[in-house]
Design brief:
Shape: elongated
Structural class: alpha/beta
CATH topology of the largest domain: Rossmann fold
Strand content: 25-35%
Helix content: 25-40%
Number of helices: 12
CATH superfamily of the largest domain: P-loop containing nucleotide triphosphate hydrolases
Length: 342
Amino acid sequence: MPIIQIDDVTKVFPARATGAEPLTALDNVSIEVEKGDIFGIIGYSGAGKSTLVRLINALEKPTSGTVRVNGVEVSGLRERELRDVRLEIGMIFQQFNLFSSRTVWGNIEYPLRVAGVPKHEHQARISELLHFVGLVDQAHAYPDQLSGGQKQRVGIARALATSPSILLADEATSALDPETTRDVLALLKRVNEEFGVTIVVITHEMEVIKSIANKVAVMENGRIVERGNVFDIFSAPVATATQRFVSTIVTAVPEGDDLAVLRSRHPGRIVTFSFADGSTSQSGVFLTLGAAKVGFELIYGGINQVQARTFGHLTLALTGDDAVIDEALDRIRPVATVTEVA
């Protein structure tokens, strides 16, 4: 059974003003998150991803459909019945949401108090978490004495205090610089690997998905437009929204101004070869073209690595007899996707 299962969920918010239309934040959304996943949910502002997170921890109830967490349907539970469910869910936020009047130690201790964990158990748990996130020396500092990365580490430690099975990270790195973002993402990966915590990452940054997620759902206008294994999504995006996200970090087929520049600079036919998993298909492309006496020049593209697997898009300018080029391309198609762009 998935640890999180969302089936046919729609969430409609009432109109905010007289004469306005109700807002459909989620439209017939279904996802399954397996235990141990780092599941990414990506979308631009207004896509519905944060509303989806609020359904998982039952801060919102769906207008229709069901939400199950650890096998329990949470959408119909009363507030007091949600307490045990929420103890299984940790949450970290973009703006950290730390208590400014409490020290690092006090912030981490707070959920233990709320959960009713005996006081004599607090010290060992807090000490363990401070060591895990690397903040032992800042235990008695206040949030305004910490950097952004340190604050997020406190947020992660606090979220883990009650040993949840699920961690929700809502734009958790959006307020951080690139180097700090890498450190925080590495820490989240350790949380997943060492504690076995299932993580749902909400983001608008494809680099975050590439760095730590194993599965991803792409949202647009309240719908899931594409979902699957991260490698498959990166190497062969289908939905337009997914292609836009992937294009921010993956150089694929040239278009627009880039294509116009290539056409002006390079004679012959411009063809993109797309392939995955290893260098065999790359070398096959070059060897086949060379054997056919087709002239070629690499003019665009690159090789990418996701989940320890490689894929790439290489655009070549091909020169020579058209019939010879066509025959060579036919021989290449079994090992690479061939797209003639000009």
